[in-house]
Design brief:
The complex is a heterodimer of chains A (410) and B (225).
Chain A (H helix, E strand, L loop, with lengths): L2 H9 L3 H39 L4 E5 L2 H4 L11 H6 L4 E15 L4 E9 L1 H7 L1 H4 L14 E5 H6 L7 E7 L5 E12 L4 H4 L2 E5 H8 L7 E6 L5 H11 L6 E5 H4 L1 H39 L1 H9 L4 H36 L2 E2 L8 E3 L2 E3 L2 E2 L5 H18 L1 H8 L3 H5 L3
Helix pairs in contact in A: 1-14, 2-12, 2-14, 2-15, 12-15, 12-16, 14-15, 14-16
Chain B lengths: L3 E12 L2 E13 L4 E5 L6 H8 L7 E6 L2 E2 L5 H11 E4 L11 H5 L1 H6 L3 H14 L15 H13 L5 E5 L7 H18 L2 E6 L2 H4 L4 E6 L2 E5 L1
Parallel strand pairs in B: 3-8, 3-9, 6-7, 7-8
Antiparallel strand pairs in B: 1-2, 1-4, 4-5, 9-10
Helix pairs in contact in B: 6-7
Classes of the chains: A alpha+beta (410), B alpha/beta (225).
């Protein structure tokens, strides 16, 4: 018998009360881990889908392009595209041009954002284009075929196969026009995108405005979104001789998505803190009750020669043991819940009929979790610390017991 | 030099706005190996005196000396160490820790002293055998009779071989037969191990076993036999 075994035995003195507290602690941990992993999974998939359709995990722009999105701020990638694509953990590099213009059909005209893409790689990586049948995709980079957003097609009162005219400003300042044919239609679920999207071959777009061989964006798609810290310095190294351009993270390039996720994480964390506080109050209550019940016993322990610090240590050890058990049980339950949410997920299609959009990105209506082990370990450790902190007041109170008064206590 | 020396000790409690003198100007000397009783009716100051001797309380005035050391001015940590190393306590209500077995309860003070598990268990089992507690080592207090619990409490008090064993009304919760057996046992330990016992009681049966009787009345020494 030592302090640890005495603390363990004390913990089970009031079996029901300890079990209720342990259940509260374990379930809280399970919910925290499960809900965080679900958010982590949803956000990871959103980021992945967002960056593939948008800026990439990392992106290269002409300096100051992000401040104004001025279409004049183009740059010539030269060999950079191939060099970056050859780096380890880089899946692909997508060169793009973004050009505002006006699309006119025989019946309507609408403002558009013409996106010039490399047809050989874009379709494989852009999640919205993957669903498109091969027959509705174009292969020539300098052709006159275009992919339109579903709303734009409707607003221009066009049908696949029909022609329309695009007018935009040439590099020289002159207005230029060209005719395109609708090859395919894309429905991203994002209203602003679906009503302005027009995708054509990169060479055709560049030729139209007189920026041949130039791009606005080199979107770098990584094989694993966590590989950014390894790839970043290598890309920086390649850009050393190009002071006109700079590398940006997806967070900088897509601030709407990044801020929306940050805001959601912040509100989740606020709820987590409240949950943990409620749990802490439960632990304080349990330990305080346990101390009050053993007032007389503590008096005897002090009378037979225990120092107050040993008594305080006993209470703290009891709390730590409770926290440790809750940490193990809660983490096992949290892992089970996460496993279920990874394998099966939550099907939101029962509740929502439309595509789900968040921060300008569409995400899968079947919400699936992703393992965030460092976070799971961290929150488990916090629970342990919280149990320890919750025991401080009861421990201080126990240490203040006067043995003579305590032994008169019934 | 006396093992225990009380020099003009007074203990005054404050109850509301009133001051109550539990012990007044009390002096006493107890030598090693004595078997003495503090006798007197309720409120005569028996428990207060035991608390003062046992370093559980401090006198309002006067001095308490234990084994040549003035404990009156000792700090809390020092008092805890004195209680652990020099004093054994036997309480009226046994006060065993309910979640521990009889043997674990008995070796509690040795655990506080930091003695290795094997050694302390050996010592406890020797005393268990001497006090007729063989086979009860693994029983919880709730599974023991009052007499057995009090004998476990005696082992707990004696196992660290303290300078003095203080027993506050040790037979108050026992029937007359168990009380008699316990007193004979304590006498035996006093005789064979030269252990010093000071106990309080108002039971004539218990008092009759003492070699020295200190009669108290209203916090004063009334008579010494």
């Amino acid at each position: 018998m030592n302090l640890l075994s005495l603390a363990w035995k004390n913990l089970w003195r009031n079996r029901r009360r300890t079990l209720i507290t342990l259940i509260a602690l374990s379930f809280s941990l399970m919910l925290l881990q499960g809900s965080h992993n679900l958010s982590h999974g949803v956000y990871s998939s959103m980021i992945d889908s967002g960056v593939r359709a948008g800026s990439g995990h990392m992106v290269i722009y002409q300096r100051h392009y992000l401040d104004s999105r001025d279409e004049k701020l183009t740059f010539a990638p030269t060999d950079l595209t191939a060099e970056i694509a050859a780096l380890p953990k880089v899946e692909a590099v997508l060169p793009r041009l973004y050009l505002p213009g006006l699309a006119q059909s025989s019946r309507e005209s609408r403002g558009i954002l013409l996106t010039g893409v490399d047809p050989s790689v874009e379709k494989m990586l852009n999640p919205f284009l993957r669903k498109l049948p091969a027959s509705e995709w174009f292969s020539a980079s300098d052709g006159h075929e275009a992919i339109l957003g579903s709303r734009l097609l409707k607003e221009l009162k066009l049908k696949p196969g029909q022609k329309f005219v695009v007018t935009m400003q040439h590099q020289s300042g002159e207005l230029v026009s060209d005719m395109f044919r609708v090859r395919g239609v894309v429905a991203t679920g994002i209203k602003t995108v679906d009503s302005t999207l027009m995708m054509v071959g990169l060479d055709r777009a560049a030729a139209l405005v007189g920026v041949k061989g130039k791009v606005h964006e080199l979107a770098i798609i990584l094989m694993d979104q966590n590989a950014e810290p390894q790839v970043w310095p290598q890309v920086k190294m390649l850009l050393q001789k190009r002071p006109d351009i700079a590398t940006y993270s997806w967070e900088e390039a897509m601030p709407n998505l990044y801020n929306a996720i940050r805001l959601d994480y912040a509100s989740s964390n606020f709820i987590f803190v409240i949950l943990l506080l409620i749990v802490a109050i439960g632990v304080v209550n349990t330990l305080l009750m346990s101390v009050m019940e053993r007032f007389r016993e503590f008096g005897v322990i002090l009378a037979v020669g225990a120092r107050t610090v040993r008594l305080r240590l006993l209470i703290l050890t009891e709390a730590l043991l409770m926290g440790l058990v809750a940490m193990i049980v809660g983490s096992c339950l949290g892992a089970l819940l996460t496993w279920y949410l990874v394998a099966v997920g939550i099907d939101m299609r029962t509740f929502v009929s439309e595509t789900l959009e968040f921060g300008g990105v569409v995400f899968d209506p079947v919400l699936r979790a992703a393992w965030d082990l460092p976070w799971m370990l961290r929150i488990s450790f916090y629970l342990l610390v919280l149990s320890f902190l919750a025991a401080l007041y009861p421990a201080i109170k126990a240490g203040r017991i006067c043995p003579v008064a305590a032994m008169r206590h019934y | 030099m006396a093992l225990i020396e009380l020099k003009a000790v007074s203990k005054i409690y404050r109850v509301g706005n009133q001051q109550v003198a539990a012990v007044q100007d009390f002096s006493l000397e107890v030598e090693t190996g004595e078997f003495c009783v503090l006798a007197g009716p309720s409120g005569s100051g028996k428990t207060t005196l035991l608390n003062l001797i046992g370093c559980l309380d401090r006198p309002t005035s006067g001095e308490v000396w234990l084994a040549g050391q003035d404990v009156t001015r000792a700090g809390e940590k020092a008092l805890a160490d004195i209680r652990l190393n020099k004093i054994g306590f036997i309480f009226q209500a046994y006060n065993l820790i309910p979640v521990l077995t009889a043997a674990e309860n008995a070796e509690f003070t040795l655990m506080l002293m930091g003695m290795a598990k094997k050694n302390r268990r050996q010592r406890v089992l020797e005393l268990f055998s001497e006090l007729g507690l063989d086979g009860l080592e693994n029983r919880k207090p709730a599974d023991l009779s009052g007499g057995q619990q009090q004998r476990v409490a005696i082992v707990r008090a004696m196992v660290a071989e303290p300078a003095v064993i203080l027993a506050d009304e040790p037979t108050a919760s026992l029937d007359s037969q168990a009380s008699e057996e316990l007193m004979i046992l304590m006498q035996k330990l006093n005789r064979e191990r030269n252990a010093t016992f000071i106990f309080s009681s108002h039971d004539p049966l218990v008092i009759s076993h003492a070699r020295r009787v200190i009669k108290l009345l209203d916090g004063h020494l009334e008579q010494e036999l």
